Amino acid sequence: MKKELNEINILIDLLAKLPGLGPVSSRRVVLHLLKTGNRSRLNDIATAMIRASENVQTCVDCGNYCSAHKCSICLSPQRSSSEICIVQDVSDLWAVERAGAYQGRYHILGGVLSMLDHIGPDELRIPELLKRVRRDATQEVILALGATVDGQTTAHYIAEQLTGQNVRVTTLGQGVPMGGELEILDGGTITAAMRSRREY
Amino acid sequence: MKKELNEINILIDLLAKLPGLGPVSSRRVVLHLLKTGNRSRLNDIATAMIRASENVQTCVDCGNYCSAHKCSICLSPQRSSSEICIVQDVSDLWAVERAGAYQGRYHILGGVLSMLDHIGPDELRIPELLKRVRRDATQEVILALGATVDGQTTAHYIAEQLTGQNVRVTTLGQGVPMGGELEILDGGTITAAMRSRREY
Q: Cβ atoms within 10 A of the Cβ of B147, count?
């Protein structure tokens, strides 16, 4: 059976390696797509994948995905070029965009510094960031990196590189998340929230 | 941004409709595939999907997926043609095959009878089954359908259709699953296990 169903098994193995999927979910997805009524969707997805693979580029300035040389955020005259929000990945940029509270530009690092994974400043888009800050005379750099050890190490490294460059370096406020219950929050978050308490 | 990233959004929307995925997992998968190192995988998956869509057929006898007119199980001389195991979907056939405890053939219904979803015998491959049993003078039909109301209704319906046809109709044994703890088992299963108790 293995040999005969080669086409199915190749597809299952490929999908099983995607994040969040495994052999069981992958099997379920493939069987779903092979059902008589769903065959056209199999072709639709394949076409969409080829189109994305051919057309999606990386913005030369910020590293966002786009279909041209620069992304729409970097090209938009409505977006302030004096602020740059530093994020780890495109998914973080999307998250900030969904919140709709930021009108400046972005810079995507493509990861965070990590001793364990041998990721140094040159593996990330840090040199590009420093050049960009100098070129555009940026006024504020917002460090929107994860509150992990590697994220904070990266934030610290970038802040150090920017000292003496006449640019304000800020970081996201920390505290109790919206809808967050104190009961289930970790001590670090509560400590941060306590430190950044304000008048009611 | 929405307009510019059309290629990405189309792909995310398509994948978000797959079973077990939603908008969040779909976004994660697409961002993963768009990363520089993974672009080739995007093409590999697209190619595998097109190949599967073009080559995977349905066995005329049992309804299993195959790359020819009949599947390898129906063609194999090692598989007894006197026994037919009735399953709901191809995923169930795969589960029985993985167990390796069955050497007969299969018949895939493609669903179960359901009043709510307007699925009657003609929407399933029940007429084909009855023809096949007559044609091959099948000796045993094993009803390996789920222990749900619809599954058992379907099993009952098929058993009724086969009465008077000189074919033995059996169903899978019910009881405590391997590694199952009594504490977390439902009453129905314990009752079934009690009824089918045997000498130690």
A: 13
Cβ–Cβ below 8 Å for A15 and B45: yes
Closest CA to B59 of B123, B106, B111: B106
Closest residue in chain B to residue A18, using alpha carbons only:
B29
The Cα of A29 is separated from the nearest Cα of chain B by a number of Å equal to 6
Query: Using CA atoms, how far apart are residues A82 and A141, in angstroms rounded to an integer?
Result: 9
**B14/A44 touch (CB, cutoff 8 Å), yes or no:** yes
Name the burial class of residue B41, with classes exposed (0-12), middle (13-18) and buried (19+) by CB atoms within 10 angstroms of its CB: middle
Answer for the pair B109, B88: CB distance below 8 angstroms, yes or no.
yes
> What value of ipTM does the predicted structure carry?
0.79
Q: What is the pLDDT along chain B (200 residues), one digit of tens a residue?
A: 444 578 899 999 999 999 999 999 999 999 999 987 788 899 999 999 998 988 899 999 999 998 888 999 999 999 998 999 999 999 899 888 888 888 999 999 999 999 899 999 989 999 999 999 999 889 999 999 888 899 999 999 999 999 988 899 998 888 888 877 878 788 888 888 788 877 77
User: What would the pLDDT profile of A50-68 be if each residue is shown by its tens digit?
Assistant: 989 888 999 999 999 988 8
The torsion of the CA quartet B121, B127, B132, B137, rounded to 10 degrees, works out to 80
Contact between A29 and B20 using a beta-carbon 8 Å cutoff: yes
Cβ contact (<8 Å) for B32 and A19? yes
Interstrand relation of B65-66 and B57-58 (parallel, antiparallel or unpaired): antiparallel
Q: What is the chain A residue with the closest CA to B67?
A: A4
Indicate the pLDDT class of residue A4, thresholds 50, 70 and 90. Answer: low
Nearest CA in chain B to A28: B19
- Domains of chain A as residue ranges with CATH: 2-55 (1.10.8.420), 79-199 (3.40.1360.10)
With contact defined as beta carbons under 8 Å apart, do B141 and B80 qualify?
no
Contact present, A98 and A120 (Cβ < 8 Å): no
Find how far residue A115's CA is from the centre of its chain: 20
DSSP E strands: which ranges in chain B? 57-58, 65-66, 83-87, 105-108, 140-143, 168-171
CB A134 within 8 A of CB A165: yes
